[in-house]
Amino acid sequence: MKTHEIALGAKNIYKSYGSVNANEGIDLTIDRGSIHALVGENGAGKSTLMRIFQGIEQPDFGTILIDGKPKKITNPKQALKMGIGMVHQEFMMAPDLTLLENLILGDEPIIKSWGIFPKINWNLAEKEGNELASKIGVTIDWRRKANDAPVHILQFVEIIRLLRKGCRIIILDEPTAVLAPTQVEELFNLLRKLSHSGATIIFISHKINEVIAIADHVSVMRRGKISFSNNINNTSIEEIAFHIVGDNQKKLTISKNSKNSLGNTLLNIDNLCSKTIKKSQQLRDISLKLKAGQIIGIAGVSGNGQIELLECIVGLRKISKGKIYLQEKNITNISVFNKRKLGISFVSSDRANEGLCLNSSIENNAIAGSHRNSPIFNGYILNRKIIQQIALERLNNLSIKYGNIHENASSLSGGNQQKLVFAREISNKPSILIIAQPTRGVDLNGIKAIHNLIIEFASQGGAVLMTSEEIEELQLLSDKIFIISNGRFVGSVEGQNSDIKEIGKMMIMDANKNV
Amino acid sequence: MYNSYLQRGLGFALPLLAAFLISAIVLILIGENPIKIYSMLVSESFGSSRRTAATLSASTPLLFTAVATAICFRSGAFNVGVEGAFLIGGLGGVFCGFILPVQLGILIIPIAIIFAGLLGGIWLYFPGYLLAKYEVDEVVSTLMLNFIAIAITGYLINGPLLSPISGNNVTPLVHDIAKLPRLLPPSTLHAGFILGLICVFMYSLWCNRTPSGLESALIGLNQRFSNAVGISVQKTLILVMVLSGIIGGIGGASHGLGQLYRFSDGFSPGYGFTGMAVALLARNSPVGIIAGSILFGALASAGTTIQLFSDIPLDLINIIQGTVMIFAVIELTRISFSRKLKVSI
């Protein structure tokens, strides 16, 4: 921190996957012995950059600097050799082995006492473990099995394992996501000790208040670029939040001309709660009324419950308390199939795995969900001719560009894939459209088309509930924006004339209380 | 789903080619001329109309078991319990064949077949239900059910259903009227072959022309997507398991009423598993299933005669079958592996 030696750097890194540019000219320097926070929405390009640092991916262009010198990292093994290691969100542990066994797995200290059969030197292993643990100020019961140990201990073991392999640059991917507040404190103490001993830490997080608490330096990534980078003492939560949500570099061109006259309440959500499953955010007392012709946006930092809420509404997630009414009808616990039949459509945020079936034909993707409706299905048999005809109609309505309708959906570009999802979801004349990330990974023209489509849908009396990581998009389209934090609505603003800074502040409001 | 015919053909031919190459090496090692043996295989299986009929006869049970397996495989359920359904259905069909009064005449046959299908369907309903509701691994449950099927049928033919006039482990013969007609006497090719072809045709129709066929293909490809578009993954899984059981059971009845006329120990020398190899090789395609069944039928029928006329043991056929299966599976894993890679990006 004092010396300002560069431990790790990126110079003009470009990386694209097909038509998606994940990294577009990254310049980043990370000082030795510093804790460098990297923040940004999902899809901003953080993971890609980290994969490049670890040698899992090769940049299309640009250089990596290690200790100030340009280096090529061709594979993860080499990255470890150069001292770069990463602790993933999912721990890499064999659950049935003890912590000590996990620590040395793959790199066991060996005594050659049994002739050609080597023997593991457990005493040395434990000594090494304890030394490293005391260096970062923790004690670990090495005999414990990994599946009995608490998560924060597992995290410590992961870090110690990297130290044992000689890593001096440690990347932590959202390390606090799985921890309770007191455990977070413990982790932070450890990280401080580690950085004082000269190790460099890259801390990836969504939680800005934690970044302020622990980091020396913060860099914000947005759309494949570093949009902001500063010493932590010279910035503020508000400034960081502002750079995460909007940089005003890209002006969205369409705007809603006139306000739709709002009709009856279509969807009424009453005190909805949902429990945590695996790592999902729990929802607490969400209430909301959605009227015909209305577009409501939900803003929040990723992982605060916005996706979970939408999943509850369309029937993909269990509701533990509260009710959902469609007009007057209680639809709280009916199946996805029946909800779709009643006119609720869903555009998933996970286009590749949920929105589309990429390894099935474009035709199947276009008609899936309608395949039991007449005239596609006449009660006895599917009419292939009509299927093709309807699929073509749907594709042409949104002017989707495709090669062959029988080719897999993966052959489409990202923008056209997203349009295909919309084409399918609006085709059965739904009354409510639930949209998660309407334009993620879509190019400008595609965004325009999708925005027009949403506006047109609402102007014809449809109701839209959507969430987006692009706050500007929500401002542009929504009549009203609810802000969600830790699974709870913490405020709402009018869509059009709202202040992005105000929204940003509310997005991190509840999170502030928790640490 | 979209595959050119060339690709599909290669997917079928490559594992075969590899298997015959490896077997050729084995043959050379034991001092035989592979070309001579292979040409003998061909002439023994298709050389005359009699030999061809024997081949088709041997392929008949495979048509059923391959379709039954493919129904599940294309839905992503790795059902290995067709063998059990085949046995249970076989005994059920034979039971009808000798217990129903002769006065029913030709009607016995459809009753027996329906009863066998019912038994097979119920048989695989249980692992299907456990898989859908509790995520009980279907490989384990269906594999275990095979042993239970062997034990149950073994008990029944040694006890309550034991033939009073025969020795051990056989049921009485079915009534003459309940026997499926032979197509090309004196060969054992019987009407079950036609029934098998009908099953393959129905399977093809189901895949391409019914909502549940489409749904099962989609859940095999992507369960999250299927859920999101309103397809019930649970119901579909149970459905394909039951369908698989029904076809397996009917296959058993056809074998019992058409080939053996009774149920005995060793009723199925692993037709369920050979059917699995056929389904894998065919990648669940109907045309592939017919071709694969005939091919494996040819191997089986020619193998026995080759053993008679040369020093080549029947095990060579097992080697070929085993290698085909391994290479067919390798091809499958390569496909699913490349799919995973795409998703992770």
Short account of what is shown:
With 515 residues, chain A is an alpha/beta fold. Helix content of chain A is 33%, strand content 26%.
Output the keywords.
A: alpha/beta; Rossmann fold; 2 domains; disordered C terminus; B: 345 residues; mainly alpha
- Per CATH, what is the topology of chain B? ABC transporter involved in vitamin B12 uptake, BtuC
Let me know the largest β-sheet of chain B.
Answer: none
What is the CATH H-level superfamily of the largest domain in chain A? P-loop containing nucleotide triphosphate hydrolases
Name of the top-level CATH class of chain B: Mainly Alpha
- Which bin fits the share of residues in helices of chain A? 25-40%
Main beta sheet of chain A: 6 strands, mixed
Count of distinct structural domains of chain A: 2
The third-level CATH topology of the largest domain in chain A is Rossmann fold
Going by CATH, the architecture of the largest domain in chain A would be 3-Layer(aba) Sandwich
Helix percentage of chain B: over 70%
Q: How are helices and strands ordered from N to C of chain B?
A: HHHHHHHHHHHHH
Terminal CA distance of chain B: 21 Å
Count of helical stretches of chain B: 13
CATH class of the largest domain in chain A: Alpha Beta
